[in-house]
Amino acid sequence: MIKVVIWNEFIHERESGAVGNVIRSHYPDGIHRYLADALKCDEFDITAVSLDMPEQGLPDELLDSTDVLLWWGHCAHEQVSDELVAKIRKRVLAGMGLIVLHSGHFSKIFRSMMGTACRLRWREAGEKERLWVVSPSHPIARGIPETFVIPHQEMYGEPFDIPDDGKIIFMSWFEGGNVFRSGVAFQRDRGRIFYFSPGHETYAVYHDENVQKILKNAVLWSAPEEFVPDRITPMPEPLEKINTPDPLAGIDTAQLHK
Asked: What is the pTM of this model?
């Protein structure tokens, strides 16, 4: 089974007032727990965690056994410790899949993996979003119709400051006229990363069957075949005889590689 961990700030769902009531009507036990139920299948062993839990929800023993991490963040990016971000980054580079959801584009871990500011344009007007599959042969797009509509969504628009090496799988058009690269896949060392923008907390986006299918596909795609932790590139024996004289012969250069 694929060990899946769904991480969520779990802050908006507990807010008082009208907005909090709306969010709880969609996700009464939190976005992370809703997704854990929605993605449940025989292939996944899912754990839902949140920022308020000990060690910010990701103690070493859990993180070190995780195959795929889903990350939903919005208003508490800076509360996530740099130490935890470094541990997640190390795990991703070793092979763990990372699926970054909605406003997680501005999370510490996503910016760390991208090496850019990950800025974008946004507008909250409850407008229609139409997603288009632009890479139909990609495993994340398997079983997804050519296009489908999310009735209400927060607009994310270009320009989106992410690296050019990402594989665009989904593009979105918004009722207000903006377009956005709403589903992009990356490779970082051994780890696969997928960013998926639909999922604003005040709308029931994760109730959509196509969205759930995309996330299931993303878990299967990003799950590692193997982990290669913290490796140091070895110095292999040469395949052919080296005849060129070494100008550093007799000098101990081992200290340069420590």
From this structure: 0.92
